[in-house]
Amino acid sequence: MHEWSLAQAVIYTAIEYQKKKKLKQITELEIKMGELQQIDIEIFKFALREIVQLKKMMGTKIKIETEKAVLKCRVCGYKWNFSDSTKKLNKDEAEFIHFIPEVAHIYLRCPKCKSPDFEVTKGRGVWVSSIEGLR
Questions:
Q1: What residues does 118 pair with on adjacent strands?
Q2: Interval 4-13: pLDDT, tens
Q3: Confidence label for 87 from pLDDT (cuts 50, 70 and 90)
Q4: Could you tell me the strand order of the sheet in which 79-81 lies?
Q5: Which residues of the chain form beta strands (DSSP E)?
Q6: Residue 36, CB half-sphere, CA atoms under 13 Å: how many?
Q7: What backbone torsions phi and psi does residue 20 show, to the nearest 5 degrees?
Q8: Residue 99 to residue 69: CA distance in whole angstroms
Q9: Which of 49, 89, 95, 135 has an alpha carbon within 20 to 30 A of 36's alpha carbon?
Q10: Are 76 and 112 in contact (CB under 8 A)?
Q11: 13 SS3 class
Q12: How confident is the model at residue 75 (pLDDT cuts 50, 70, 90)?
């Protein structure tokens, strides 16, 4: 259900933008999805299609781009890809990170110095990167 609430938030953001800019119709919606969200993309797309129909936005072209997650160690400065770390996680740990990305610090360590003190520099969250429409 996480995917449905995110899809709903994206569509409502687009509708608010449409109202603010006084657009007659939204023609294209570009969405960036951070890899750390670990969203089931097919469920997210399905939810978007359903909500678009409910909001009478048929004809809106939706593009989704995934942004790879990059982590940076605060101790040694090493940068690495989140996807490299997930190979060592069990199913439950991956699920915990899916719902609460902040718990990644419990399960992941810097590959170089083994510190759990890192920051996510890219690939977190879901956001609308572009909206195009007709006036």
A1: 73
A2: 999 999 999 9
A3: confident
A4: 79-81, 70-73, 118-122
A5: 25-34, 61-67, 70-73, 79-81, 118-122, 126-134
A6: 22
A7: -60, -40
A8: 16
A9: 49
A10: yes
A11: helix
A12: very high
Which amino acid is residue 54, in one-letter code?
L
Q: Which residue has the tokens 């915990």?
A: 96
Q: Which domains does the chain have, with CATH numbers?
A: 2-67+123-134 (3.30.2320.50), 70-121 (no CATH)
Place of tokens 């899916």: 98
Q: In what order do the strands lie in the sheet with 126-134?
A: 61-67, 25-34, 126-134
Question: How far, rounded to the nearest angstrom, does the alpha carbon of residue 25 sit from its chain's CA centroid?
Answer: 25
Residues 51, 13 contacting (CB under 8 angstroms): no
The residue to which tokens 């570009």 are assigned: 30
SS3 call for 132 = strand
Cβ-based neighbour number of residue 37 at 10 Å: 21
pTM, whole model, 2 decimals? 0.75
- Which of 130, 108, 128, 135 has the alpha carbon at shortest distance from 119? 108
Which tokens sit at 2? 């996480």
